[in-house]
Amino acid sequence: MNFDRVRAESSAVALAEGRKRIALAVTSVAHDWSPAQQEMLALVEEQPEDILAVIDRLKAVQKVLDLLPPSPGTNRVAAFNTLYLTITEQVAESLRSPDCVDPEWLEVLDVEFARLYFKALGAWGVPGKDPADAWEVLFRRAYDDKVTVMDAAVLGVNAHINHDLALALLATWDRLGYPGDGPQHPDYLLVNKIFYQQIPLLRRRFATAWQLQIDKCVGDLDDWSQRILVRTTRAMAWEQAETLWALRDDPKDYDHALRVMDRASACAGEALLKGTSLLQVLWLTATAWATRLWRRLTGRPTKP
């Protein structure tokens, strides 16, 4: 694969500088999981082996997060964890569905996906184990009550899909083999349907009174736009994974690609905080821009 390492290096620098320019001030910066740092680290130290263990771990993490500042049940990472737990429970049910072609493959993907989240939780506040920049955008605002719970949940989705999902696919392919667009790809798309069903309910659960009024005014527009977000971001994650898979034997190019992916995800996260009323537009814009950048680095044609 052709990979523009020079452009990747300059893009990584530009993304870091761009993030600084658009980042909003944090009124209550979190640096670890205090006062439950050791409890959290112990909880995520061992990685789950199946999807039921993932669900149990997410529930245990939820209990810890719900006790943290800014007040019981309002920690901003807890908002994302709630959403993630709900989606994971639905994925577990889908493994028994006739629509699922390869349940083993989908379960391994879910487990590898969750491991990356638990790894990020376990790296926060630990010297020498900084989480990805994409997660740091959310984690440092864990105690910030100026960030709405809806925005916080979306920040977590941004980090987990725009950064972690491609890496989870790589780990799955390492374990089970690279399927290309084979029979497993429909199972990947099956998760999109779960998002389509659950996100409207979760969005209304997290919304403030003012956001609920806006939701009523726009009708089905929010649901439609968020379906597009899910479809485009998860499609981009598959494409990123294919690129990384081709680069895995070249450590330098692989590291450069990872850095660009992480910093682009972090910039998208900061952009999300510019205003809930513009959330969908900003995220779509950031994602489209990141997609164009990625395709320039890899030589793929940019779609109109």
What does this structure look like?
The protein has 304 residues and is an all-alpha fold. It has helices spanning 5-22, 37-43, 51-65, 76-94, 103-123, 133-139, 149-176, 185-206, 209-218, 221-247, 251-272, 279-298. Helix 4 (76-94) crosses helix 8 (185-206) and helix 7 packs parallel to helix 10 (221-247). The chain is globular, with a radius of gyration of 18 Å.
Query: Regions with pLDDT < 50 over 5+ consecutive residues?
Result: 208-215, 217-221
Major β-sheet profile: none
Helix share bin? over 70%
How many helix segments? 12
- The tally of beta strands, per DSSP, is 0
- Helix-strand makeup class: mainly alpha
* Shape verdict: globular
Notable characteristics:
about 300 residues; 12 helices; about 70% helix
What is the topological layout?
Layout lengths: L4 H18 L14 H7 L7 H15 L10 H19 L8 H21 L9 H7 L9 H28 L8 H22 L2 H10 L2 H27 L3 H22 L6 H20 L6
Summarize the structure.
With 304 residues, this protein is an all-alpha fold. It contains twelve helices and no strands.
